[in-house]
Design brief:
- It is built from 22 helices and ten strands.
- With about 625 residues, it is an alpha/beta fold.
- The strands form two sheets. Strands 6-7-8-3-9-10 form a six-stranded mixed β-sheet. Strands 2-1-4-5 form a four-stranded antiparallel β-sheet, with no helix packed on it.
- Strand 4 and strand 5 form a beta hairpin.
- Helix 5 packs antiparallel against helix 7, helix 7 runs antiparallel to helix 11 and helix 10 runs antiparallel to helix 11.
- The longest helix is centred in the middle third of the chain and has 54 residues.
């Protein structure tokens, strides 16, 4: 795993309180699930482990050869042997490096292939999640799972997993070599290791505490900067003349951040001094023990070369032993990473397409809501008994107070949500028995917020019909009153619309969205505030196109504009989870009920406003 100081992530060797509280439970099921992603690449993993073992073994040779250089070449004054041994040491170093490069290459290949597999699986899984998932989950969380978390798997494979194997191989081969040369010096060298590790843990905890407190103050300073130097924040500061006060706040927080940084740096300097001293204690003790055994005890099994090789091998033990002591932390963070990924994989899709979905002809067929109930929150029912029929080929308008569930009603037709009770039928068939892709291909939706991909006008239009000809594109755009605008652009259909269509005005985006639906040529049309982003001139220009588009189609329109509602064959008034009223404009006005209230409070004002402006023009 990658180490370092980060949000909710402690330094190597320490778990944050958050990590301790959210520590994943280690189960055989979880481990087997992780291994299932590694299984397809077992042969490559075998090559990596063989390479690690070879590298650990070959890595011993330079230290052992150093002992021979001292005992045989230098002490024996043999120049030829010295050259041979130096060349041998160089070759072993080169071979070890080459093996390391090959191991890293295979490791990287495995990591990237596993990431490739997991991202494909995640994208496919998320594509088929219900619409409710995307309305409740934060987009940042989705991107984190897709990118940061899955990319972090690379660190687990190439870092944690191979590091564990490499460190174990290094420790085992080194210990075997040490005891093979001199068990006495090996014991002396190993006894020193705790003297190196214990101070590291103690100083590390102190530095971690300072880093945590420093990070908290840094967050406070960032919050202050973000609030007071943003567009809205800076305006508020100026209007209330609080520049001096905010500056004092910033200086105070900045002083605390600076003091914590100085403390952390000071502890770090002393830490390196102490570590440098302890690192030298091991070799010094080995030299002392070796010298005592040779000089005072006359040990015939020891030589100067043996002592030199032992010192080199002991230094080789320190880093892997320390890494293995952090195994629990690395293992916990690796499991936590996979747990977060699996948490998304385990989110269930509640909109299931039937195994043998049907594809009936829906052209000019009735849409029937039979006592439909629905709620986003079980404790807060939104629709309780929606019951109505839209005859095939007719255009119905849905009106009602804000938040009454108008958009929810139409979203049940393409199964963006499923009913909690009752059923929605199209052409006599429950929409849950339709082939899901076929059902949605028969429905054209123009919503209040038009969404365009960051591409060209042509690419956005072809999303509805990938094989559309230029003539078909032009006809659709002409019908949506957007063709002249496109022709006036230097790049024509190749004009970039920008992220979410930001290079276009609201009306241009809406008309382009309408053109896309026209190109789709749906049998059922749903317009959810489809002309809300258009001014009166644009709306009038496109109204004829909409009327032509609705000819021969079963249409449901949600609108606040009276001009649209007046053209409906029937008006449905939604309130308190039911269809409270239905009828024509005149019938509903005569009923003197909810619709009349809406007419007086919403539609009449809009009508008067448009009438006043048309007279001025």
């Amino acid at each position: 795993m990658a180490t370092g100081m980060g949000r909710g992530l402690g330094p190597r060797g320490f778990l944050t309180e958050e990590e301790k509280q959210n520590m994943p439970k280690v189960t055989s099921k979880l481990l087997l699930r992780i291994l299932s992603y590694l299984k397809p690449y077992w042969f490559q993993f075998l090559l990596v482990f063989v390479a690690i073992l070879l590298s650990a073994t070959v890595g011993l040779l330079p230290s052992i050869i150093t002992g021979r250089i001292v005992d045989e070449a230098l002490m024996g004054r043999d120049m030829a042997l010295l050259v041979q041994l130096l060349l041998a040491a160089f070759v072993t170093l080169a071979v070890s490096q080459v093996i390391g490069v090959l191991e890293s290459y295979i490791n990287a290949w495995i990591s990237q292939r596993i990431i490739f597999d997991m991202k494909n699986q995640m994208y496919h899984h998320l594509q088929h999640m219900p619409h409710s998932f995307f309305t409740t989950e934060k987009q940042g969380d989705i991107l984190t799972r897709m990118n940061s978390d899955i990319n972090g798997v690379s660190s687990v494979i190439s870092g944690t997993l191979t590091s564990i194997v490499s460190n174990i191989a290094t420790v085992v081969t080194t210990v075997v070599a040490l005891f093979g040369m001199s068990w006495k010096l090996a014991l002396v060298g190993i006894v020193v290791i705790p003297l190196l590790i214990l101070p590291t843990k103690s100083v590390g905890q102190t530095r971690w505490k300072l880093l945590t407190e420093s990070q908290a103050k840094q967050d406070e300073m960032n919050q202050l900067v973000n609030e007071t130097l943003s567009v809205s924040g800076s305006l508020l500061v100026k209007l209330f003349a609080r520049e001096a006060d905010e500056y004092k706040r910033f200086v105070a927080v900045n002083e605390e951040v600076t003091q914590y940084a100085l403390k952390e740096q000071r502890s770090g300097k002393w830490f390196h001094v102490v570590m440098g001293m302890f690192t030298q204690i091991g070799p010094l003790l080995i030299y002392f023990a070796g010298g005592w055994l040779i000089i005072s005890q006359g040990d015939p099994t020891l030589t100067v070369g043996t002592i030199t090789a032992t010192v080199a091998l002991i230094n080789r033990l320190y880093r892997p032993v320390q890494s293995l002591l952090n195994l629990q932390v690395d293992f916990t963070r690796s499991l936590a990473l996979f747990t977060r990924i699996f948490d998304y994989f385990d989110k269930q899709n509640t909109i299931f397409p039937p195994k043998h979905g049907q594809r009936p002809d829906v052209t000019c067929k009735d849409i029937i809501f039979e006592h439909v109930s629905f709620s986003y929150d079980p404790e807060k029912p939104l629709l309780t008994d929606i019951h109505f029929t839209v005859p095939g080929g007719k255009m119905y308008a849905i009106v009602g107070p804000s938040g009454s569930g108008k958009s929810t009603v139409v979203n049940l037709i393409p199964r963006l949500y499923d009913v909690k009770g009752g059923r929605v039928r199209v052409a006599g068939l429950d929409v849950r028995n339709f082939d899901l892709s076929y059902l949605r291909s028969c429905i054209g939706v123009v919503s209040q917020e038009s969404y365009l991909f960051n591409g060209t006008i042509r690419e956005n239009l072809l999303y509805a019909k990938p094989d559309a000809t230029l003539q078909e594109l032009e006809e659709a755009c002409r019908a949506a009153s957007i063709l002249d605008f496109i022709h006036n652009q230097p790049e024509g259909f190749e004009t970039m619309v920008g992220n979410r269509g930001l290079k276009l005005s609201g009306g241009e985006k809406q008309r382009l969205s309408l053109a896309r639906v026209i190109l789709k040529d749906p049998k059922i049309l749903i317009l959810d505030e489809a002309t809300s982003a258009l001014d009166s001139i644009s709306e009038n220009a496109i109204q004829d196109a909409l009327e032509k588009l609705m000819e021969g189609r079963t249409s449901i329109v949600i609108a606040h504009r009276l001009s649209t509602i007046l053209k409906a064959d029937c008006i449905l008034v939604v309130k308190d989870g039911v269809i409270a009223e239905q009828g024509t404009h005149e019938e509903l006005l005569a009923a003197d009920g909810i619709y009349r209230d809406l007419y007086e409070t919403q539609f009449r004002k809009v009508l008067d406003y448009e009438s006043d402006h048309s007279e001025k023009d």
